[in-house]
Design brief:
335 residues; 2 domains; alpha/beta; 7-stranded parallel β-sheet; Rossmann fold; 5-stranded parallel β-sheet
Length: 335
């Protein structure tokens, strides 16, 4: 009998096609994520769950799924999964590190440039018929990027990819991370700075940290007030890394010049959220990895990880390697 995999929502077909070669796939072919009740009903008799960051895979879900051996998530972050509980129960967790790095770095730069040069405002002014004078010396003035200082908070895969792109803009790059990366300092010519120093000196600050208890609310009122009044904040990591109310006030009152945001504390963001009324913020709906190539790679990578676990093989995208001490791959093997 083939192992049973529950796929919580619509994903690129390459992932489904690969799973079907080895597994009995219960595919919920819908764009919205399942309700909590639907999720709990669906996992009762499955060997694997293929989820996204919108489904909370917590103790209740795992305990309901008594046969569960592996959880695959189409995301790098795993803050929606109770990984400690999974590990304690011998449940393997696979994710998508690496495959979305360059695409998210591109998007961070798109937000940075769009905010700095007021691209969205300019586009809207033309569409609204507000462009009346062919050229004006003071119209829609923005901020230069070339030769400025970029502050990167979190110098992992995506943060370092963002820093590499800054070389083309002849930028000075500061970085802050809990782990100092002297190898990247030499390779990229970047400089380590404590968080407060980075915030004070940077013209642009971009966030690339996972959401953990330590990073939740990392950027609050105090940190925003340390930044230059001409500075721009970019966030493509997780919304809760930034205190959104404090950021809104910072943008309203001019503590900083602008922000480019792909993530929010609550997603989707409410239609009446005050951020939506501000011109000095560029907003995108959590699409940092949303290219055809990358989403296909992500879908396939998760499927590969799930299949490898069910074959009794260690996948290279295993998030919780300590799980092997609790339940060996031989014990998990079904294919």
């Amino acid at each position: 009998m083939k192992p049973k995999v529950y796929v919580t929502r619509k994903i690129p077909e390459v992932g489904i096609e690969l799973l079907k070669k080895f597994c009995d796939v219960d595919y919920r072919d819908e764009v919205p994520p399942p309700s909590r009740e639907e999720l709990l009903d669906a996992v009762e008799d499955v060997d694997a769950i293929y989820c996204t960051l919108n489904e909370k895979i917590d103790e209740e879900v795992m305990d309901k799924a008594g046969k569960l051996k592996v959880i695959g998530t189409m995301s790098v972050g795993v803050d929606h999964i109770d990984v400690d509980h999974a590990t304690s129960k011998g449940i393997y967790v696979v994710h998508t590190p690496g495959v979305l790095t360059e695409t998210v770095a591109d998007h961070a730069w798109a937000l940075l440039l769009a905010t700095a040069r007021r691209i969205v405002e300019a586009d809207r002014s033309i569409r609204n018929g507000e462009w009346k004078i062919p050229w004006a010396p003071t119209m829609l003035l923005g901020y230069d990027v070339y030769g400025k200082t970029l502050g990167v908070i979190g110098i992992g895969r995506i943060g370092s990819a963002v820093a590499r792109r800054a070389k083309g803009f002849n930028m000075k790059v500061l970085y802050y991370d809990i782990v100092r990366r002297e190898d990247l300092e030499k390779e990229l010519g970047i400089k380590y700075a404590e968080l407060d120093e980075l915030l004070r000196e940077s013209d642009f600050v971009t966030l690339h940290v996972p959401l953990t208890p330590e990073t939740k609310g990392l950027i609050k009122e105090r940190e925003l007030k340390l930044m230059k009044r001409t500075a721009i904040l970019v966030n493509t990591s997780r919304g809760a890394v930034v205190d959104q109310k404090a950021l809104t006030r910072a943008l309203q009152e001019g503590w900083i010049a602008g922000a480019g945001l792909d993530v929010f504390e609550k997603e989707p963001i409410s239609v009446d959220d005050p951020l939506l009324k501000l011109d000095n913020v560029v907003l995108t709906p959590h699409i940092g990895s949303a290219s055809h190539d990358t989403r296909n790679k992500m879908a396939e990578y998760v499927a590969e990880g799930i299949i490898k676990v069910l074959k009794g093989e260690k996948p290279d995208n295993l998030f919780n390697p300590d799980v092997i001490k609790v339940r060996s791959l031989d014990e998990v093997k079904m294919i």
